[in-house]
Amino acid sequence: MDKWFHSQNKLIQVILLLIPVVNWIVEILVRWSAVLKKGGILRIIVAIIVTIPSGVVIGWLDAIWTLLFNKLVLE
Questions:
Q1: Number of domains, the chain
Q2: Which residues span the domain enclosing 21?
Q3: Which of 11, 57, 66, 69 is most buried, by CB atoms within 10 Å?
Q4: How does pLDDT run along the chain (75 residues), one tens digit per residue?
């Protein structure tokens, strides 16, 4: 899922991260996919934080971060 997300253009990524419920689902899928592929303690911690309901706020932060830097926060 993380490969698919990063292959989308920036506008699609930002739109997916701005819609409240969709951003949470996208965050969960992208973060846990990255954990399964690449591992790492920081990725696991971020994936757990995104999985709890505060992940919606992190999704909005990721939308801004994606606009500015073309990647997710702590990726």
A1: 1
A2: 8-53
A3: 66
A4: 888 999 999 999 999 999 988 999 999 999 999 999 999 999 999 899 888 877 778 888 989 999 999 888 888
